[in-house]
Amino acid sequence: MFIAFEGLDGSGGTTQIGLFADALRAAGREVVVTREPSDGPVGKLIRAELAHGAVGDAVFGHLFAADRRDHLDRVVLPAVARGAVVLTDRYFLSSLAYQSISLGLDRVWALNAEFPPADAVVMLDLPVDTCLARVEARAGVRDRFETLDQLHRVADAYEAAITRCRRRGDRIVRVDARGTPPEVHERVRELVWPA
Ligand code: TYD
Predict the structure, then answer these.
(1) What's the 167 CA to ligand 1 centre distance in angstroms?
(2) What is the CATH number of the domain that holds 104?
């Protein structure tokens, strides 16, 4: 079982993955928690470039896809093969949302065509201003308007990407991410608890 958590920055994916992993482990399942950008060589390169911004948008599109290939081969597929539940903080829907803003959805779709859909995607839905408030509380944000504008763009891009993935048959579960972490966790459990 392979489950991806998605959402805007600040929507609570990392917290919810932790709670879901704890619950699954308490029920006796082996759980692997992972993330993209991954902790592998390409993921590390991406994190460094996200901080310095030396490469262009198209290169990022390729780097995210290369990291995804590495992440699947090195972490996700071996764990799924031995029966573990794999929870990833972001997967290709993040590329379809974030990279499509500059590259267009068709181009990013093509770059990600080889990747198998997760068994379920948990999309944490949280209003843009709530996300921004959380991100700001975590670390000072320089240009509030630019960030708000960008978050709105990402939110719109997620909608387009979700529509396209659902048309193909991907299972995307939308969860209301407002409220306390335990409240949201209960919603996630109800909707995607593996059999
Ligand atoms: P994020 O999960 O927010 O990492 P952290 O919480 O450790 O900073 O991911 C970092 C950023 O990378 C985030 O803004 C979304 C972006 N991203 C993409 O643009 N495309 C992708 O394919 C992925 C996986 C992430």
Answers:
(1) 25
(2) 3.40.50.300
